[in-house]
Amino acid sequence: MIAAVQHFRHSVNNMTQELLFSGVKPTNNLHIGNYIGALKQWTEIQHRYRCFFCIVDLHAITVPQAPKKLHESTLTVAATYLAVGIDPNRCRIFIQSEVPQHTELGWILGTMTKMAELERMTQFKDKSKKRGEPVGAGLFTYPLLMAADILLYDTTVVPVGDDQVQHLELTRMLARRFNTQFGETFTVPQTLIQKVGARIMALNNPTIKMSKSASSTANYIALTDEPNVIRKKIMRAMTDSGNEIHYDIEKYPAISNLLTIFHHATGRTIKDIEKEFAGKGYGDLKKALAEAVITMLEPIQKRIHYYLDDTGELMRILNRGRDEAIGLAETKMKTVLERTGLGRQSN
Ligand code: AMP
Ligand code: TRP
After folding, report:
1. Residue-range domains of the chain with CATH
2. pTM, to two decimals
């Protein structure tokens, strides 16, 4: 699957033309997997593009959410974007449900998509299996809304973790299909995935992804976890049988995951970390890793509190993001309605 990904070639010449779009669902707490696999990457590339970072609350309600908690999580995710270093002067941050064109375009794309094309989505298959109860239609049509998010803005690049690659392929296919049927309307976006750390695994089970919807909090380290909680979770993290501190995903999946996290927390190469811990025990590695993660998260936690303690600045940033997004989305939807024959013909 990954081999099929179009890796974006950074082109300096038409830098100002390029639009980057990405989003995170405001469900539960964001964790270090979200940070390493998504947010950190955004901060590193934000200077190369015109950036739109969305809090995708309409995607969050594909599984039931408590209303008050959803409002809170939405603001916490917005604060987290800023806390990790997204620059509000360069980038726009907005809430998906405040731009109604996302659902509008999502519907239209659904009329052009085959059931089988959605049934093939592994995320849908996994999620519907996991819940073990009748699955909502929203979970099924989820990728159409995601495609709408991206296509509304003539997005050229979408940074995501590798679990989203299949959704991006569907988005690209729908853009081409629409363009073929109705004339050039949408830009076909490129997927940008990060190689090391594209998938951080659960601390308590290195064969599954770290996930905020996990049944146990031992699965993940939330960006807002206190230092003592972080120490406890890392010291209890699953290890491999043996005592080798060596990066090898097949043979030592648990230790490889810890080394990956270590690499991202410190910026040190995995080889360098392996060398430091050669001949030492798993306990030594874990102790050092816990401190590295605490150090990485401390400034982020401080800034999350800063934005949430007095939300005035956050509100201004979200208003500005919403207004700019609506401006672009309205223009694009006018073209879409005209081309598809919806409503009254203009002129
Ligand atoms: P989600 O938590 O599913 O809303 O995902 C938000 C973003 O974080 C997406 O770009 C995901 O691909 C990324 N992401 C989620 N979980 C992980 C993980 N365990 N490792 C790496 N990236 C992740
Ligand atoms: N589906 C993505 C996820 O679960 C979140 C998302 C929604 C997204 N719309 C998007 C990501 C548009 C990138 C672009 O992680």
Report:
1. 2-198+311-340 (3.40.50.620), 225-304 (1.10.240.10)
2. 0.90
